[in-house]
Each structure stands twice: as C-alpha cells, then as structure tokens.
Amino acid sequence: MTYIEWFESHAAKHEAIICTLTHLSDEEVIKYFIFENMKEKYPDFCPLYADDKKCHEMEELNCYFCACNHFRFSDEGLSKEGARTRYSLCHINAKESQDFISDDAIHLDCSNCEIPHKKSVIEKYFSRDWRKIMDRTICTIDNKEN
Ligand code: SF4
What we know:
With 146 residues, this protein is α+β, with helices and mostly antiparallel strands. It has one domain (3-137). The protein is built from five helices and six strands; from the N terminus they run αααββββββαα. It has helices at residues 3-18, 26-32, 35-41, 119-125, 130-134, and strands at 71-73, 79-81, 84-86, 88-90, 98-101, 105-109. The strands form two sheets. A four-stranded mixed sheet has the order 2-3-6-5, with no helix packed on it. The protein has a two-stranded antiparallel ribbon with strand order 1-4. A hairpin with a 2-residue loop joins strand 2 and strand 3. The two termini are 24 Å apart. The mean pLDDT is 94.
C-alpha cells in the first residue's frame, strides 16, 4: 500500500466515525478515540486492535491522530540522499524520530514517538475534519516546505 492509499483509506474511516458523533462535544470526541474504546467499537480501525496491542506502550493512548500532522511524505520521493530516495520525514525533527533505511530507500520510523497520541497534542490541533489536519502531510513539489 502506498502512503497516499493509506491516507485516503484512513481519512474515509475517520470521517465515517466522526459522522456518528455529532451528539458529542469536542472533548468527548477526543475521549471517544481512546484505545480501549476504539478497539471495542471499531475493531477494524487499526490492525493492532485484533491482538489487543498498542502501537506505543502509553497508559492513555489516543488514536485520534493516527497518523501525525508532523509527518511529511511523497510516494514519488521527497529528496535524494546519496543512492537512496527519502520518502518521508518528520517536519519538526522530533528527537524520537528515526529512519528505516534500505539499499535504495529511507522512510521515517515513528515507532518511538508518542507525540500524536497525547491528548494535549490532539487538543492543540483538533478539528473534526481529520483531512484538514493531515492534508499538509502530503508533499508535492509545490508544498515540500509546508
Ligand atoms: S517522529 Fe513523532 S512528531 Fe515526528 S512525524 Fe513521527 S510521530 Fe510525528
């Protein structure tokens, strides 16, 4: 699956859930997306739910910002780094960010970063329109510095 395919698929899933939550306040919507509630109500939202596994071992893991608004990607490649093409990066260069590096590709590895799963971060950037928050993660030649 390409980055953009995942993005579109996840945007549609997120929107479908949000449409059912019009009776909740923003604060209640954020609370609704806590791991324990989401795995019960929407077991297909994340492939890890089936195994009762968290992507990050946090006491309060919130799934609203899967993915992260600081992620940047391009399926065509963002830059060349020697013989490799970089396809994704962390816009804020978080200290927890790492790279997956193969012979010809570099992808951002967020597995050690809890930033987008924190309630305070979700509150800071919150919108019921997930696509509006995440649109800047899609990089084209015109918006790489976005
Ligand atoms: S390293 Fe952290 S802040 Fe950066 S894109 Fe990944 S999850 Fe977001």
